[in-house]
Design the sequence.
């Protein structure tokens, strides 16, 4: 038997021949059209059931084909570009309408327009953002050492589109010139940027997930354990933003005697305390009273929340108790849990000869929830109290706190002791509460707002940064000023107004650069001008003497801008802008050539901060 060659010289040609024959056979059987993948140009229909088949809504023209479901446009690649475009186009129409309603000198109050932006523009623009926005970063889908590493979600173009609409609406709110910086416009209007608004909506969605019923479909998806190889989904990433808390249930309405009566009965705290002491001193030993209280305090930067209760038989102290609850909660939760613990302790010493049990609570909010429906936060404590109150006919009475009532003072000391000791019970009082995670969500929203402001603040001008303004998404008090006065305030703050430096920067050759007094117009000149200082005796919150140095003018002007009503009063008293406007109109009528003709030689403004 002859050995085969070591290099397989005879076998290689045989293998190549077999492969070639099979390739030719396949080519003769298959047509070119059979191996080409055809991508359909339309989205397929969705068969929910044999009776319900949803046909997609195709796009018109060059739009991306997508399926509209409950107002959300779902495209085949789940990029949601079509959805963002649809929502942006709707919000853009409203934003342009709001911008056309008002100008610098006319239009509705800025505060009213801000409400319209929040109600109409933001709500329409952010509809369905929980579907497509999961943050700027997401866990990586790659395996190996890159597993669960954060990568970009590539949502920058969509976020920029949202931001442009909000900025346009914010410019319609404020009577500011179009050259005002975007960051200052959003800050002065009290509106969030596009990225901040999306982050706020994401945090609200996370809080909503924590308060859903246990039978909700989203809760079932979240409670299902993830597979080992499965990366965190967008829903799980949002759910992890806030801590877990006991979910509220849909409980039956509870109405007990006095559920529609004001716990204070129209009395002041002093009168109510006197009436309570007179009532409590007449109780016999067959009556049990339970005093409870809660506390919320900070020690070395740590938050401490605790409760305490004191049980009396007649006027004799029978039992006491105290404890701490989870720090992600509030004093309202401590009051409710303390009332439950005190009632349970009173039932332990209850005797057949006892007539009645009274719960003496100093929080009217807790009394409302005890008599009527339970609140979502600490709902389990209120529901257990409802059961015990109805079963044992327990009475509830308001005992004003810190008014010298013996039981209240004892419960208050016990609550402080329980909070400082930090001893928690092995029950649901050791878990966070809904009000506590709500505060956590608000803190996350504030962090997102402050992060955006810290990024934009260095890019603003030095004249704006000198005011050291903060930023919050709330209504600034100056928005309630008349639009003309508000324009003067914003121009003074941003230096984008009828000022000499501003006109030189943008090449306004026909602008009048000097004030009636001869000095150049500047943002802070109104406190140094002779027109204003003639009325120094009537200045609101005036200093000891008229400002003569830049730091004195800055200090007084900062006080005016911090209190918009003082700034409005200052303009009304001095008539600084009104006198200059009348002089400008007189010059335009008397001097040939109009306002580009300068009168007199401009004087050097020694007091202006911008001139220095």
Sequence:
């Amino acid at each position: 038997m002859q050995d085969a060659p070591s290099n397989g010289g005879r076998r290689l040609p045989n293998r190549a021949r077999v492969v070639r024959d099979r390739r030719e056979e396949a080519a003769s059987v298959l047509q070119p059209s059979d191996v080409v993948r055809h991508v359909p140009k339309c989205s397929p229909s969705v068969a929910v059931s044999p009776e319900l088949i949803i046909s997609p809504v195709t796009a018109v023209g060059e739009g991306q084909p997508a399926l509209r479901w409950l107002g959300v446009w779902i495209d085949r690649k789940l990029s949601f570009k079509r959805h963002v475009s649809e929502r942006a186009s709707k919000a853009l129409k409203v934003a342009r309408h709001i911008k056309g309603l008002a100008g610098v000198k006319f239009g509705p109050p800025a505060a009213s327009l801000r409400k319209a932006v929040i109600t109409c523009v933001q709500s329409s623009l952010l509809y369905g953002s929980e579907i497509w926005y999961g943050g700027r970063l997401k866990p990586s889908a790659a395996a190996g050492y890159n597993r669960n590493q954060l990568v970009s979600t590539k949502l920058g173009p969509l976020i920029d589109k949202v931001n442009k609409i909000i900025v346009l609406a914010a410019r319609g709110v404020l009577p500011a010139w179009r050259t005002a910086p975007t960051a200052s416009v959003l800050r002065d209007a009290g509106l969030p940027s596009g990225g901040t608004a999306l982050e706020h909506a994401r945090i609200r969605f996370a809080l909503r997930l924590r308060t859903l019923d246990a039978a909700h479909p989203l809760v079932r998806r979240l409670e299902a354990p993830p597979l080992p190889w499965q990366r965190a989904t967008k829903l799980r990433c949002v759910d992890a933003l806030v801590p877990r808390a006991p979910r509220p249930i849909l409980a039956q309405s509870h109405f007990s005697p006095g559920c529609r009566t004001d716990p204070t009965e129209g009395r002041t705290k002093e009168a109510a305390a006197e009436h309570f002491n007179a009532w409590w001193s007449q109780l016999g030993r067959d009556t049990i009273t339970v005093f409870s209280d809660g506390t919320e305090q900070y020690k070395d930067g740590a938050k401490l929340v605790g409760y305490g209760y004191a049980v009396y038989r007649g006027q004799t102290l029978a039992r006491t108790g105290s404890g701490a609850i989870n720090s992600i909660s509030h004093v309202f939760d401590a009051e409710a849990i303390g009332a439950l613990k005190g009632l349970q302790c009173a039932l332990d010493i209850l005797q057949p000869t006892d007539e009645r049990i009274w719960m003496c609570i100093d929080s009217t909010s807790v009394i409302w929830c005890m008599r009527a429906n339970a609140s979502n936060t600490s709902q389990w404590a209120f529901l257990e109290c409802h059961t015990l109150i109805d079963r044992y006919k327990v009475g509830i009475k308001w005992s004003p706190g810190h008014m010298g009532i013996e039981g209240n003072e004892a419960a208050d000391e016990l609550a402080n002791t329980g909070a400082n000791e930090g001893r928690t019970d092995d029950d649901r009082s050791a878990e966070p509460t809904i009000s506590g995670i709500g505060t956590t969500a608000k803190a996350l929203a504030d962090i997102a707002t402050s992060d955006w402001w810290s990024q934009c603040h260095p890019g603003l001008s030095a004249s704006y940064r000198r005011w050291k303004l903060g930023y919050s998404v709330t209504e600034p008090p100056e928005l309630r000023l008349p639009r003309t006065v508000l324009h003067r305030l914003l121009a003074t703050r941003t230096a984008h107004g009828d000022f000499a430096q501003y006109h030189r920067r943008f090449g306004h050759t026909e602008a009048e650069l000097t004030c009636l007094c001869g000095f150049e117009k500047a943002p802070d000149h109104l406190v140094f001008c002779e027109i204003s200082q003639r009325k120094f005796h009537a200045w609101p919150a005036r200093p000891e003497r008229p400002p003569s140095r830049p730091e004195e003018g800055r200090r007084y002007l900062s006080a005016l801008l911090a209190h918009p009503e003082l700034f409005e009063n200052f303009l009304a008293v001095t008539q600084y802008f009104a006198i200059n406007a009348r002089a400008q109109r007189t010059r335009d009528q008397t001097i040939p050539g109009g306002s580009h003709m300068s009168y007199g030689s401009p004087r050097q403004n020694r007091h202006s901060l911008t001139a220095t």
The radius of gyration is 36 Å. The chain has three domains: 70-239, 269-431, 480-596. Residues 70-239 form one domain. The longest strand covers residues 287-299.
